[in-house]
Amino acid sequence: MICARCDRHLKDDEAEPINMAAATGAGTTIYLCKGYCKSAPRQTTPHSIRH
Ligand SMILES: [Zn+2]
Question: Where are the domains of the chain?
Fold first, then answer.
């Protein structure tokens, strides 16, 4: 599994499952590092951010 925040590969004992309840009723479980981790730097340009 991969941390949804920092994209790091996690072992079972490193991952914190987070249940994302969806409006459709089909919940999605994502995994994050236990404790704090930084977001992975994304290769997106500022131009892709629209307001
Ligand atoms: Zn992480």
Answer: 1-36
Give the three-class secondary structure for 51: coil
pLDDT 10s digits, 11-50: 999 999 998 887 777 788 999 999 889 887 776 666 655 5
Write out the DSSP string of 1-51: -BBTTT--B--GGGEEEEEE--TTS--EEEEEESS--PPPPP---GGG---
Residue type, 40: A
Å from CA of 29 to ligand 1 middle: 15
Answer yes or no: pTM beyond 0.70: no
- Distance from the CA of 22 to the center of ligand 1, in angstroms? 22
